[in-house]
């Protein structure tokens, strides 16, 4: 450990972003601890996690530098080569293709549980000290560092503490970092389905007046769905018997892949936009969902969180190469300004897309299909959109 028995960094929260942050900082030579309330269940290929991510190329590269991506890819990461976006009201289609962008794939569909499993497996060899099961009860800080009191009576001291404990972050609250919230009044219904026709390694998204329906390739004829619906409609759809659900889903997707049928349980989660008004309070940082929760329509939530981690790793690396203090307040604030700016732009961009497409107002309905078609016919614009989404 560093001076006076401190850790260099303690990460609170052991999800994908928190565990990746612990590994990234340990790889840069820092002494790192991680606090998590419960050990994650082991991933099982026979029980797919309903929560999946459209994983971007820059974050696959990040996990590769952490020595984790190969294990994830070999276990089950389904590459998608195309993306099709269209509006139920008609008009053109927005289409991305890996070949036209000079790539082997556009990204990968990966289960949350698999990512967490492989990241945790790498923690011991990286020298990360794990406090689990344990939760933060109290926090105090000064110019030298942060002191956490855990619910099992232990105390943890570190030069900095990082809140990666999700949208309801305890550490963020203890640090006095406030958030702005907007409830979309929508739910994301998730499940796995089989389709009569192959999904063509394509990530599909159809905009309906009730919200977008995403169909993400998981195997040749198997897909993960994220069906955005108003709260009451989401509850109704969850309560349908399987046959009725299958019919409504097939119709909502316009039969594009033929008949669709459930092959898993269903679940739903409330959708909101939530943004921390600041990312740093003294020596406490916040990142991932603790800093920003966005609409899932573009599948960018975990990608934004991992870009927070990559930015912090780069800060530490650059400072150490110059033999400078990586945890100096001005450096942490510079990281915070950059990440908060990018994440806020992304959050409000997804907000605008959701507002424009998730309604049946006549003037918007007439315009949006044409806009999709126009964008799809402008290669430079398409390339710019994709590079931003993939972090390249």
TrEMBL record:
Cofactor requirements of the protein: FAD
Entries under InterPro entries matching the protein: FAD-bd, FAD/NAD-bd_sf, Ubi_Hdrlase_CS, UbiH/COQ6, UbiH/COQ6_monooxygenase
Alphabetical UniProt keywords: FAD, Flavoprotein, Monooxygenase, Oxidoreductase
UniProt pathway annotation: Cofactor biosynthesis; ubiquinone biosynthesis
An MF annotation (GO) of this entry: 2-octaprenyl-6-methoxyphenol hydroxylase activity
GO biological process: ubiquinone biosynthetic process
Oxidoreductase as UniProt keyword: yes
Ranges annotated as spanning the membrane: none
UniProt superkingdom: Bacteria
Residue intervals of the FAD-binding domain: 8-312
Pfam families xrefs: FAD_binding_3
Family: Belongs to the UbiH/COQ6 family.
NCBIfam families: PRK08773.1 (NF006448), Ubi-OHases (TIGR01988)
Name of protein: 2-octaprenyl-3-methyl-6-methoxy-1,4-benzoquinol hydroxylase
Lineage: Bacteria, Pseudomonadati, Pseudomonadota, Gammaproteobacteria, Lysobacterales
């Amino acid at each position: 450990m560093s001076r006076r028995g401190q850790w260099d960094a303690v990460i609170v929260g052991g999800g994908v972003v928190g565990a990746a942050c612990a590994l990234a900082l340990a790889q840069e030579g820092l002494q790192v601890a991680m606090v998590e309330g419960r050990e994650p269940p082991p991933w099982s290929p026979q029980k797919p996690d309903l929560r999946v991510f459209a994983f971007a190329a820059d974050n696959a590269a990040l996990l590769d530098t952490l020595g984790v991506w190969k294990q994830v890819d070999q276990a089950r990461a389904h590459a998608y080569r195309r993306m099709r976006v269209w509006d139920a009201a008609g008009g053109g289609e927005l289409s991305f293709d890996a070949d036209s962008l000079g790539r082997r794939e556009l990204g990968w569909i990966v289960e949350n549980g698999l990512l967490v499993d492989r990241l945790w497996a790498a923690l011991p060899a990286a020298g990360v000290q794990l406090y689990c099961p344990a939760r933060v009860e109290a926090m105090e800080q000064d110019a030298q560092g942060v002191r956490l009191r855990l619910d099992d009576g232990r105390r943890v001291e570190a030069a900095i503490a990082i809140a990666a404990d999700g949208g309801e972050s305890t550490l963020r609250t203890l640090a006095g970092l406030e958030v702005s919230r907007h409830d979309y009044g929508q739910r994301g219904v998730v499940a796995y389905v089989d389709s009569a026709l192959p999904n063509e390694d394509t990530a599909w998204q159809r905009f309906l007046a009730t919200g977008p329906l995403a169909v993400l390739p998981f195997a040749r004829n198997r897909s993960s769905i994220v069906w955005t619906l108003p709260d009451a409609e989401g509850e109704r759809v969850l309560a349908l018997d399987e046959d009725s659900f299958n019919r409504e889903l097939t119709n909502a997707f316009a039969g594009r892949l033929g008949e669709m049928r459930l092959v898993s349980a269903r679940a739903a989660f409330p959708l909101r936009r939530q943004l921390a008004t600041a990312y740093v309070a003294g020596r406490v940082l916040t990142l991932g969902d603790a800093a920003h929760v966005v609409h899932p329509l573009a599948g960018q939530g975990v990608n934004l969180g991992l870009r927070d981690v990559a930015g912090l790793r780069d800060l530490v690396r650059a400072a150490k190469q110059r033999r400078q203090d990586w945890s100096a307040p001005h450096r942490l604030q510079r990281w915070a300004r950059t990440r908060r700016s990018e994440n806020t732009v992304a959050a409000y961009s997804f907000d605008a897309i959701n507002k424009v497409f998730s309604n049946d107002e006549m003037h918007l309905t007439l315009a949006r299909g044409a806009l999709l078609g126009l964008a799809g016919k402008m290669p430079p614009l398409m390339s710019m959109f994709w590079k931003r989404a993939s972090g390249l």
